[in-house]
Amino acid sequence: MNTEVVTLLCSGIGLGEYNPALIMNARLKKNGFATEVVVLETLYQPEKLLERKKTVIAFQENFKRAQVAQKLVKDIGNVLDDTLVIELLKKWKREARARFVVFSGFWVPIIEQYLKNESINNSLSIDLFHLESGGGASWRGHNITHPSCHHYHIGDHVTKTMHYGINIEKDIVKYKERSERILIHGGGWGIGTYLNKIKELEDREIDLDVVINDIYNIPGHQNNIRFFKNDPNWNPWDKNDNDSHSFCPFGEIVKDQEIIYSSNPDYPEIYKIIRKSKAVICKTGGGALLDSLSSVTPIIILESYHEFEHNNSLLWDSLGFGIQYDKWINSNCSMDVLEKLHENILAAKSEIQDYVEEVISCKIKAF
Fold this sequence. Notes:
Blueprint: E1 2-10, H1 15-30, E2 33-39, H2 46-61, H3 63-70, H4 82-94, E3 99-102, H5 108-114, E4 125-130, E5 149-153, E6 155-156, E7 161-162, E8 164-165, E9 182-184, H6 198-203, E10 208-212, E11 225-230, E12 250-253, H7 271-274, E13 279-282, H8 286-295, E14 299-301, H9 307-319, E15 322-324, H10 325-330, H11 335-349, E16 353-354, H12 355-360
Parallel strand pairs: 1-2, 1-3, 3-4, 4-5, 8-16, 9-10, 9-13, 10-11, 13-14, 14-15
Antiparallel strand pairs: 6-7, 11-12
Helix pairs in contact: 1-8, 2-3
């Protein structure tokens, strides 16, 4: 067993920076690594955490507001509790933490403080995993070039190349064996234009699985649509009864029945639907790309939240892993088109390095 603790730093600001850390955490533990996941929001001032919840609701109600607001976010230092940050740094120093994987650029200022710790500076190794092509919203303004830091990127939309994925250890479902259904969602925050597409898809008799934020979002619908929901009482910064962070509980909405939420310890519950779907209609956040690559499920691409999601959409489109929503609609919602995209991902998958497997097999030098 590798007893040196690997510290995984993520954020609950979006599940795209949270779920990959938990997926990696589960896989490392199964392979004998000691780990700890730290969610940035556990360091927030209480009143700022409450404001964040209100912001999510506001963004769900107004996607254009969300698109404008994200352009203004560069630093979150003013929302952190300095006492909690100091206590965390003291803990790391006391335990001589030296191995880190960072999934959110908002952690960089704290990492920079820890890098001043000369007593362990020479043994430090910090991997920074970029989930969006061209950087990522949380990495904006956080360029770190310390020799202890190693950057890993999911891909590059400019060179049209893939570099790393993070796979979920489930068998790939053959395309012919998948249900004739398409999943549609708005990412971890449940934002975007996806709800506006339901009526059009329903009219075209597309069988849908829809993730919604509130049961009041359910339109009048026919029997070809199933609705699902994340547990509204769950927060990524809270720990479960085992004192661990967990994936969001997820359940199907069945008329006149209480929603039964469940959570898998190894991967998000929604992944069970993704891997059996013909495609996923969504924005191209980093988490969506990892799900698509891991399950070999193409993305029907919706309007982006920010420029880095747009970069991701260019990457997926150029590689033939996804298709723009309007283009797919104009193909008369062709399932043959989607199957070709699936085949493209399947053909490329073996050439794309699984970052977690590289760590486990000690191919990543830092580990």
